[in-house]
Amino acid sequence: MGRLKDKVAIITGGAGGIGIATAKLFLDQGAMVVIADISKEALEKASLEINHENLSYCVVDVSKPKDNEKMVAHTLDVHNRIDIFFANAGIEGTSKPIAEYPDDIFDSVIDVNLKGVWYGCKYVIPKMKAGGSVMITSSVAGLKGFAGLGAYVSTKHAIIGIMRVAALEFASNKIRVNTIHPGPVNNDMMRRIEKDISPENPGEVLKGFETTIPFGRYVDSNEIAQMALFLASEDSKMITGCMHIVDGGMLTN
C-alpha cells in the first residue's frame, strides 16, 4: 500500500472489467476511488465485488456535459479534491463495413468514446489538483485499422488528439495526460465483438485474434490496471503526452 496514498481517483467505465480491476488496485495502493458508469445496477454490483470503504459510485452518462459536471461535484463533495482521472468508458459499436454501418450506432460510438473523453477532460481536469494524472483508454485500434470496426477505430484514433492537446494545455499545472492502448482484452467487450463478427463461431474469432499476438493470448484487465497505476503514481511524474501500449506485441506484426 502507498503509491497512491490519500489520492482521489475518478474512473469512468468503472463497472466494466478494466474499471473494476483498476479500482481494486488503486484502493489497495491507498487511493479513494469514485467509479462512474451509466447503469446503477452495474455500479451496485461492482461496488459489492470491490467491497471497500473508500469506494463510492456515481451514475453518469459520459456523453452528457451535465453528467460530467455531476460526477465532478459528487467527487468534490465526498473527497474535496481530484488527483487522478481515468477516462476509461467506451463501447464497441458493431462489426460492419463503412458502407453498411448503421448511422444510429455510429452516433452512439461517437457520443461515448469521443464526446465522453472530451467532456471528461473539459469538466474534470480544471478541477484537479496540480501534479495530477489523466489516463485515457484508447486501444491498439487507435494505432491501426481493423476492417469492420470503423466507428470504434475512428474514435480511438481521435482521442489521441484530445490527449495531446490536453497534455499541452494543462502542462502549466503539471497535470500529466496520457493514453493507454490495450490489445484485445479478455473481457465482456471482446466476447461481444467475437460474437458480432461470427455469431456461429465466436471461438474461431478469438483464436484468430490470438494468432496476431506474439505472446499468444489476450491481455488481462489487471495488466491494464497495472499500467494505469504506473501512470497515476509519481513514478510517471515526467511522462505526459504519450501513448502506452499493452498488447503482448500485437502491433509489432
From TrEMBL:
Pfam families, alphabetized: adh_short_C2
Tagged with keyword Oxidoreductase: yes
EC number: 1.1.-.-
Signal peptide bounds: none
InterPro entries: NAD(P)-bd_dom_sf, Sc_DH/Rdtase_CS, SDR_fam
Superkingdom of the organism of origin: Bacteria
Keyword Oxidoreductase: yes
The protein's name: SDR family oxidoreductase
Organism for this UniProt entry: Maribacter flavus
